[in-house]
Write a structure and sequence with these properties.
With about 140 residues, this protein is α+β, with helices and mostly antiparallel strands. It contains two helices and seven strands. The longest helix has 13 residues, at about 50-60.
Amino acid sequence: MTETFETIRYTADVVAMTPDGHVLLIERGWEPYEGHWALPGGHVDIGEDSRTAAARELCEETGVRVDPEHLRQIGTWDRPDRDPRGRYVTVAYLAVVPDGTPLVAGDDARTARWWPAVDLPPRLAFDHADILSVAAGSTS
């Protein structure tokens, strides 16, 4: 019998929200989903756990710093077709940050912006609308 193994990439995403109801999104500057809005996030590095990766990616892409211990895990997304590049599994975290937290787009983000949670952009990348829906339910 021949065994087949699938390459699975491990990522972490962050839903950063303010007490006044805004969500932090980045505009992707690369494919897939170039020009779409997405949650800050990315690959978990070798020797790193997903919580630490989430805090690192949030800082690299938006300039927002959070203590990894202050991130609350809200779920894991692993649908096989969630990313057109192949199999990606992400662990998503929630971070509540102060109103007016300044942003600096960096790394892979074309821009970063606070969006009212009740008026998000129509073009969200990947399954980030699903992640945001779960995050909204976990804050109420």
